[in-house]
Amino acid sequence: MRIFSRILGTGSYLPEKRLTNADLAAELAQQGVETSDDWIVERTGIRARHFAADAQGSSDLATEAARQALGAAGISADDLDLIIVATSTPDMVFPSVATMVQHKLGAAGCPAFDVQAVCSGFIYALTIADSMIQSGSAKCALVIGSEVFSRILDFQDRTTCVLFGDGAGAVILEASDQPGILATDLHADGKYKDILCVPGHVNRGGILGDPVLKMDGQAVFKLAVGVLEDTARASLAKANLTDADIDWLIPHQANIRIMQSTAKKLKVSVDKVVVTVDQHGNTSAASIPLALDTAVRDGRIQRGQTLMLEGVGGGFTWGSVLLRY
Ligand code: UT7
After folding, report:
1. Residues of the chain with pLDDT under 50
2. Ligand 1 mean position, distance from CA 291 (Å)
């Protein structure tokens, strides 16, 4: 009998500090950087974002989201036999955020590791967990996307610093004889490294290169719309489904215009798209599980519905997970 992986519970966490566009614009104005609520809303759909406190790292946000997901699933950390965290903003160079989360949850022993695929990270992590469950090497996985992008923003660069926020989202994935994840599709193309990157790195006790986010927004925009359509279609084809079967589209939350274009290409009506970018900004690997948990908790997403999760980000990386909730 085929083993599937199924979402048992979801959780999320947003740091306390919330900045509206007006709050952020006022802070930036003090540093001589000009922006406005009108520009940000019109070009991106973002109205607010959360920033972590100085003492909070990705592992703290991830642990809070994990506790919620464990609670929703009705299991304890001891039941986990796999922990994967998708992040590009880890607490340290090493060890991984996943091992820190494991310890903070009071668990030990099961494999724990991070996946680095930037804004596609959660899709990559979910695909790996699904493969490990299907192969029988795991039965109950905690999969998290957690980011503190506020730490890698250049607040002198208005073209990027207004776009991102901090947060974490988590799912518990368990082995089941019922689907579950129906199809997955992952891709990468390293030639696009320079259009979205943080070029700085630790070198002999210092930082070499600029350790802040650089992005060619328009190049990213054009690529994103194309690959999000392609990967969604690839997952649908693998599962022998069509775009008409999608109950909820949960794309990476980077820009409302990218999400609307993707929905249009997939012939999914905009009221079937889960949108949190307005309240969270772009939280990179955390954006998809945060959106998923939001729509599960407010009752939009119901058991038995078909969800299309899809991400795109630095690398370039992109991919999708089609699942029955
Ligand atoms: O998760 C990673 C994936 N990332 C993305 O998906 C981002 C994709 N790209 C985008 O979302 C959009 O390209 C942006 C939101 C980043 C930019 O929107 P745009 O419509 O492509 O604007 P633009 O870069 O063409 O800039 C238009 C104008 C420029 O002024 P001029 O040259 O026309 O006078 C910018 O200097 O807007 C100006 N501008 C701003 N004005 C006020 C850029 N940033 C700001 C700002 N506030 N924050």
Report:
1. none
2. 23
CB–CB of 58/91 below 8 Å?
yes
Q: Ligand 1: distance of its center to the CA of 74 in Å?
A: 43
**Chain Cα centroid distance, residue 133:** 21
Active-site annotation holder among 110, 119, 140, 161: 119
pLDDT tens, 212-237?
999 999 999 999 999 999 999 999 99
Ligand 1 pocket residue status of 235, Cβ below 6 Å: no
Cβ atoms of 198 and 152 within 8 Å: the answer is: yes
**Who contacts 209 (Cβ-Cβ below 8 Å, separation ≥6)?**
199, 200, 201
User: pLDDT at position 1, please?
Assistant: 82
- Assigned fold of 181-324: Peroxisomal Thiolase; Chain A, domain 1 (3.40.47)
Q: Which CATH entry fits the domain spanning 4-176: 2.30.170.40, 3.40.47.10, 3.90.25.10, 3.40.309.10?
A: 3.40.47.10
The answer, yes or no, to whether any atom of ligand 1 lies below 6 A from the CB of 255, is yes
Counting atoms of ligand 1 from 1, which one is nearest the CA of 218?
13
Q: Which two tokens stand for residue 245?
A: 């079967």
Among candidates 181, 147, 177, 179, which has minimal Cα distance to 319? 181
On whether the CB atoms of residues 307 and 292 are closer than 8 A, the answer is yes
List the structure tokens of 276. Answer: 């949190």
pLDDT in tens, 276-306: 999 999 999 999 999 999 999 999 999 999 9
pLDDT of residue 107: 97
Q: Whose CA is nearest to atom 43 of ligand 1?
A: 159
Structure tokens at 55: 């003492």
The model's pTM: 0.98
**What is the CA(212)–ligand 1 centre distance, in A?**
17
